[in-house]
Every structure is written in structure tokens, then in C-alpha cells.
Amino acid sequence: xxxxxxxxxxxxxxxxxxxxxxxxxxxxxxxxxxxxxxxxxxxxxxxxxxxxxxxxxxxxxxxxxxxxxxxxxxxxxxxxxxxxxxxxxxxxxxxxxxxxxxxxxxxxxxxxxxxxxxxxxxxxxxxxxxxxxxxxxxxxxxxxxxxxxxxxxxxxxxxxxxxxxxxxxxxxxxxxxxxxxxxxxxxxxxxxxxxxxxxxxxxxxxxxxxxxxxxxxxxxxxxxxxxxxxxxxx
Length: 234
What we know:
Belongs to the ABC transporter superfamily. By secondary structure, this protein is α/β, with parallel strands linked by helices. The chain is built from ten helices and ten strands. Strands 6-7-8-3-9-10 form a six-stranded mixed beta sheet, with helices on both faces.
């Protein structure tokens, strides 16, 4: 489905991404793990057109989409749930979800996807008329993921979905990510909680200072002594 080769991204003279390559097969969960500053978020932003690349290629279903404008990525099938949630605090939960489907002409489909979100996140359904800014951190994260579901697409990019959440909510978020995947959505997950990410992912890539340094089936990566010491604390 998604093939990234020798990706490079510069911020002025600073090389944020130096050489990152990975593949995301159709219907799978792939995780990118690494320390702060490894380039995980920048990689996702390049995939969704929010950052321009200075080298390499991004290919989706055989189509080169490298450096396409961000607003053209959604119709191509890429839905990005950014780090920090980025919900609209002055809109209600339902309005946030409705706005996520603004590019979809079939409004019945939008309504169906909103109901799908409510089934996945009953807590969000209970707060459908509540302003987004009044939700708890965990509820805002559920809403952010829900907007990605409403937007739809072939692949969902999730950037640090567990950041700042209580442990019980972290477990809930990861359970729902699995549920979303089982319904047929391909997922690329960026996550500092390496243990949880490796537990649910099919494949994993380790990013270090702008390079892809390790890759393979997630369960095998989790057993690698370097990964266990650096990211799993064992």
C-alpha cells in the first residue's frame, strides 16, 4: 500500500530526516518507534503533505504522492490524526466530527461514520453536544481519532495517541486502535509507548536521529536486546 524510500526532510540547514525507508502493507498496523527527536512526527507530516521533502519518494498504491499539497492527500486516502489532538475547542463533539467529513459529498456516509465513532467510543457519544474544549484529555484523544475515522481513507496516520493519558485510558485507546484495524483500516502508528505499540503492531521500524535503523515483525523487534534496553526498560 504505502512505500517510503530514502525519505529526507530539512528544516533550513538542519536535516530532520536523513534516510528513512519503510513499507505499510494493506490492512496491517505498522509502528514507528524512537526517542524524542528521532524524526517520527516529521515523517508523518511529510506523508500527509504538511512538510516538504528534500529527497526520497512516497508511493501510495503505486502512485507517487511525494510533495503533494496537504489538502490533496485526504482525497487520495491519507487521514492524519496529529500529535496534540488539535480538536476545535469551541465546536461540539458532533460538530468536530461533521467537519472531519467536509470533503465527502455523500452526507449519509458521514452520518454512518459518525455513528461508527459513537459505537467505538461510547463516552464520546454521551458528550455529543458538549464543547470539545470541555472534554478530558482522554476524551479529546478519542475525538481526534474519531475525526480520522470520519475522514476515512486507505490509511490512518496516528501520532502519539497515548500522550499524556492515564494508564487505564492508554489501554482503552490501544484497544480501539486494534478494533479500527480489524474493521479494515490500515494504520501507521507513531508512539513513544513502545511496549504498547509493539504489542498491537504487525511490523515495526526503529528511527534514530533521522535514520531507519531496525525493522521487522513487531514481536521480533520487541525481543531485540537493543530495543529492550533503549525503549522497553528491560
